[in-house]
Every structure is written in C-alpha cells, then in structure tokens.
Fold each of these.
Amino acid sequence: MNNEDLPRIKRMDVLQLLLNVIGITGVTSLSLICYLVKRDNLALATEVRLLRERQGGDATIAAQSSSVRPVKPPAKDEDISRYVAQRSRRWAALSVPAGN
C-alpha cells in the first residue's frame, strides 16, 4: 500500500461512518413514528368505541356516514387553494356534532 491510497481509505471510512449514522437514525426515527401512529390509532379507536356506546350503538354513526357524499376532484383550471379551502370548510362542518 502506498501513500496515495491512505486518503482514499480514510474517505471511505468517513463515508461508511456517515452512512451508518444516517441508517441508524433513520431506522430509529421510523420505528418511533410507527409506534406513535399505532398509539394514536388505539386512542382514537377507543374514543370512537366509547362515543358509539354513549350514543346508543352504530345507528347514529352509520346515519352520519351515509350522508357524506364523495367529493369530485377540482377542475383543471380551478385554483387549488380555493378548492382546498372549500373542502376543509365542508369537512369541518361535518365534524361538528348536530346538537352543538
């Protein structure tokens, strides 16, 4: 091995170390995100189940979900920000309980 190969080997070591750090950090972050999503889904499912039990079963929820119509996509010349604003207003209106 001559002296010209040493900087190349050091660069490869640094590159390998960098890739290891990125890989370990990425896997850790991904597993944490999956755990948090699973925890939130369980909490949401529990909340929905309790809400259904309090409201007297699935009939109320089924009636609300049957009134939801599919939303057509925006026209090609329509401004996307206006479309999103309208859709979010409709979604917010649907999420407010009827008695409030």
Amino acid sequence: MSGMTDAVAYLLDVAAETGLTAHDLDELVCDAKSAEAAAVNNDGMHAQLTYLAAGGDAGVIAAQLRNLAREAGR
C-alpha cells in the first residue's frame, strides 16, 4: 500500500468510528480548497494559469480570459 492509500484507509476508519458522513466533511474540503486557491493566487499569474490549465481546456480558459478582460473594459 502507498502512503496515501494508508492515510485514506486510516481516515476512513476514524470517520466510521466517529460516525461522520461525507456531508460532515464538506466544510473541511472547502477550507482546504480555499487555502489551495489562496496559495495559487499569491504565487501570481503564471501559477494561476498553470493551475487553470491543469484542470481544463486551454481554449475554454482562453475564452474565459477574453470575457474577463472584456468585462473589465480592457
């Protein structure tokens, strides 16, 4: 087993032992993603575009960038 698999198995055990549901974890996940987004944003445009490109289609993202610029009057 990998370290990540071991960690997930352990956390699943803790969640089961405490009676938590997926819904109970929603805020923790949101907090984690918010912290990730803040770190990416603080690292500047290159980091932001790298992050966006890793999760989506470059053509779609380019259209979103153009729309954003247009809305900002640029």
Amino acid sequence: MKKSFYGLIIIWLCLFNVTAFSNTNNIAYEITFDSNKDNEIIYRDHIFEVYERVTYGIDDDKVGTVINKNLDMFKLDSEDQISYINSTIIIIENNGLGSNISGNFNYVKCKSEVVVKSWVKEKFDEIID
C-alpha cells in the first residue's frame, strides 16, 4: 500500500512539475520623459533594441543580473537617470516632468516552438505505411 502511495506521489510530481517550476520572469519598464522633448517612440524603440541585445542567449533566471550590470546601455542621454528595482527598469529623462509610459518586454523574447513527439503516433504511422 505504501509503495503504491509513494508511486502515485512521484507520478503526480513528475506530471505537474512543469507548472511548479514555470518561469515567472517578467521584466517591465517605466519611462518618464522630459517635458521639453518629444521623443517617446525613439526612446521606447531604443530600450527594446538594447533589451534584445543584452538578453539574447541569456537564461531567464540571469536576465535581471545582466540588465542590472548594463543599465547605462539603456540611456540615450548622459543626464538620464536609470535604475532597476523589482524587475522594473525605471528611466527618468532629464527633468522627468513629461509623459509617462510603461509596459513589459515579454513579447520581445522569442521562445522556441515546442514540437510534441509521440512514439505511439510514430508506431501507428509505421504500421499504416
């Protein structure tokens, strides 16, 4: 009885470990612009390009560390203030009295497509052919 109970627990853990260990890495950005400039789109595009360059090929659990070490790359101007707090890149452009935009970088990072292989389907295909 104990062996079957432990066996069921092990099977349950194996089947549901995907949700237990799923990635929750969600890097966000918040930009407060200068009131005298009108370059919101340029700045947003710049930080997306830098994010792609900096995080390309990096494991999800190390993205925060890599971003924190390369914060200066996200600046367009030397007077901009930038920080990385709670998985959010916070940028204040010059006086910071202009508009404010925020979002996240989720759609930028491409994940490889999962192809499900079934040995049962392959065997049936062999039998049919």
Amino acid sequence: MPKKLGEIFRFETQQAVGRATRTKYHLAIDLGQGAFLFINSDPFEGAMRITRADWPEMPKEESFVSCTAVIRYTRADLQGVPIQQAGRLTDDCLRRLEDHVSKSWVLTIQEIEMVCQAFRVYFET
C-alpha cells in the first residue's frame, strides 16, 4: 500500500467508468480514507495536466490527474490485488494540484475538503 500522498500505483480496478475492469494509475490522496485520484491519458473535465517533469516515471509525455471524483477503496477491496509502485508526483506538482482541486467545479464540496485537508497534513509534516 502507498505510504503517503503523492505516491502513484498501478493496479486493476472495477471503478473505471465504462469498463468492467481496467488497469489504471492511482494517485494516493488519503490512505486512512482509502482515497485516490485516477491518472488518465485523456483530459476529462476538471483534470490537471502533468508531464514527466511532474512524474519522471510517467510512461507517456503527458497525462492528466482526474478531478472528477475521489476513488475510494477499502482494505478488503485491495486484498489480493497486485499493486505495482509507479513513482510519485513532485512536491511542486502536488502544490499545483492542491490549488487546482481547491478551485474544482466538478468534485463535491466534501471531496474538495477531504483532498485539501490531506494536502495540508502532508505539507505540515
């Protein structure tokens, strides 16, 4: 399991819209709440563009942090799921993402508050 905000993991999920299962990159947000954001190849509404300067291990030239919904998993959801570590976002990118999320018109108010709280805790420690 990821240790802190900003770590990126790749694993199969059933939460990708439009597919029964799909392997996705997940950005850890708040592990106590099982909260992640997807990383996508396409710029869905409200997404933030990232490049290899933000995520050096990124397999493409650019990707997008999805800010359409916080994806949640329980420990039971992830039990037995092979999880591949895929790097982490830079702190500079995380600060930009915090600002981006705080201004989101797509996430719910509760999701914005939870994600921004996770950023505050991360940057205070």
